[in-house]
Specification:
CATH superfamily of the largest domain: Response regulator
Strand order of the largest sheet: 2-1-3-4-5
CATH topology of the largest domain: Rossmann fold
CATH architecture of the largest domain: 3-Layer(aba) Sandwich
Number of domains: 2
Shape: globular
Distance between the termini: 87 Å
Helix content: 40-55%
Strand content: 15-25%
Oligomer: single chain
Number of helices: 12
Structural class: alpha/beta
CATH class of the largest domain: Alpha Beta
């Protein structure tokens, strides 16, 4: 009897030491959800958008009673825009904080880095923004992606170009990271299949202060289309230097990301140099999905700026996690995973959300163009609110 009492006391003591884990498994007054994103470093603008989107979703969930009768709390880890730090984030959130689901990271590079760690620990991971399709190659049963991927970006861009005038030549300029490489490979295959001649394929190192050598080679090749795979700082510099070098393709197109960031068409980004650029996009406030305009209005009310799709993807990732926990009636990882697999959210501000056999949500892609300092949907026709301006005016005529 004394031994049983001693063991029970030890169990109580251990649970007190691991209070966070015990809370997630039924005790305490919060449900903690782990988040990995980039709040500092070169990707901080995107991480801030993530943080803001998560905050809106958390507050909405808590205003409606929370989950499992408890308030939702976000345990946010800053990966500093570095893959190795993202991996440390998994260890911290799971092994120390005992969360039972993780949302993140921002970049494809960081997200790919954490896949082995979450799979080994058998923790569900919901990816809000990583577009490199190789993040889905592991086919791990613990991995789910809300956003569309690089192949979807390339296919939609090619379909738009065919409808817009069927250009014959293209150059690809890509950042030498997992994101850039994946999008370059996807567009290379899609362009060749469409009969578009790739006259230049140029890589560059991220955050370089000068891309003029790359741009000069592209200018010499004289493509009708340039397809950029770039983050925000790079996109801003590339467009400024394209103007300085008088580089004038008919179409400036891109794999989203830097060219689709809320800051890109403003003075915080490329400003007037962003005009007439095309980008793939996964969401705009004008998208015809219930709740889109309301999310935009709430975001502007809180943060005095209009969101790009990165904030919406984070918002949606948390709403998916919340729905799965609610459906599972549990904060246990395996039960949450099974609930995500069976999820069927017919209509959200991000469109319908359901996952296929490998954990991929089938999300539609839009094409936008910066017109008058704002993103306008120009493709597909049923979603468009503006007509595309083609060709882009020469720099000397702007």
């Amino acid at each position: 009897m004394r031994r049983k009492t001693a063991l029970a006391s030890q169990a109580v003591f251990l649970c007190a030491l691991l209070a966070t884990g015990c809370q997630n498994k039924g005790g305490g007054d919060t449900v903690r959800i782990g988040v990995i994103t980039s709040l500092t470093g070169s990707l901080a603008a995107f991480g801030e958008a993530h943080k803001n989107g998560y905050a809106i979703a958390r507050d909405e969930i808590n205003a409606k009673g929370g989950l499992l009768g408890k308030k939702v709390e976000l345990d946010i880890y800053d990966d500093q825009s570095k893959p190795d730090q993202a991996v440390q984030g998994v260890s911290k959130l799971v092994d120390q904080d005992h969360v039972t689901i993780i949302l993140g990271s921002y970049s494809s590079e960081n997200t790919k880095a954490i896949l082995p760690a979450v799979t080994q620990r058998q923790i569900p991971l919901i990816m809000p923004t990583a577009t490199a399709d190789n993040v889905m190659e592991s086919k791990s049963p613990w991995v789910f992606r809300i956003c569309a991927g690089a192949n979807d970006y390339a296919r939609t861009t090619i379909a738009f170009l065919k409808d817009a005038g069927a250009p014959k030549t293209m150059a690809i300029i890509y950042e030498n990271t997992n994101f850039g490489q994946s999008n370059m490979k996807s567009m290379t295959a899609a362009a060749k299949q469409a009969g578009i001649d790739l006259v230049a394929v140029e890589s560059y190192e991220a955050k370089s202060p000068d891309y003029k050598a790359v741009l000069q080679r592209v200018k010499k090749a004289n493509p009708e289309v340039i397809y950029f795979c770039s983050y925000l700082l790079d996109a801003t510099t590339l467009m400024r230097q394209a103007r300085e070098m008088d580089l004038n393709p008919k179409y400036y197109t891109s794999a989203g990301t830097g060219f689709a960031a809320a800051e890109f068409p403003t003075e915080k980004g490329a400003g007037k140099n962003a005009e007439y650029t095309f980008s793939v996009s996964q969401w705009l406030a004008e998208a015809k999905w219930a709740g889109s305009k309301e999310f935009d209005a709430e975001y502007f009310k809180r943060f005095n700026s209009h969101p790009a799709y990165h904030a919406m993807e984070a918002y949606s990732a948390l709403r998916v996690a919340a729905q799965a926990i609610s459906d599972a009636k549990s904060a246990e990882s395996d039960k949450i995973r099974d609930a995500i697999k069976n999820l069927n959210m017919d209509m959200t501000p991000f469109g319908p959300i359901r996952f296929d056999a490998i954990g991929q949500n089938q999300h539609p892609v839009l094409i936008t163009q910066v017109q008058g300092g704002k993103y306008r949907v120009v493709y597909p026709a049923e979603a468009a609110d503006s007509k595309a301006i083609i060709p882009a005016p020469r720099w000397s005529q702007r």
